[in-house]
Amino acid sequence: MSDPSASTEIEAVRDMVARFMHSEVVPVLEGYEKRGEFPRELVRKAGAAGLYGAVFPEAVGGSDMGYLAATVIQEEMARIDVRFAHCNNQQGSSCPSCIYFGGTSEQIGKYVPDLLAAETIGMMSLTEPGGGSDPDGNMKTFARRDGNVHRISGQKMFASMAAEIHHVLTRDPASLGVAQRVFAPMCAGAFQETPDPARVASILALQFSCVTRWF
Hints:
Helix content is 38%, strand content 21%. It is of the alpha+beta class.
């Protein structure tokens, strides 16, 4: 439904999202649900359509349309199918935003464009069993430096879209300070996933035990 107070440009964004959802997502998403399959190809199409880059500059692959446009994109996605809209939080917000605002220029250039284009699936992992989303008070996932690698161990939950690039909040065992880490696992089975059967796009819990180089 259009908003009479919205600009022509914002309404055009809303119409574009609605067309995308009805043509690409609605006809096939139920099939993904029944198969228990993550809709990787649909996320890639959404990235190619520019749906994840509204608040990012063009220099990193965004469209620089602004936060109002990003809100309308999320709102329209959720209005039509909230299951697929769930992907937007990690792919167009949490994961690339944490890297863009807190990462090095090398990390930003290496990861953010591919995340916004959905060529890479991203995840931001904060919440832990027993500690909730309180990194200062209760976080028990540690990253220990071992030569030129780090060893990460711990548990996360409600960690949506665990995939190729992971943004994980951890503690440093020496200082107990909180650090934001961007990593790609170096070994198979670096984490174990416990899926939530009610949601195609989410992972209920992650058990970390891996060696990784931070990027």
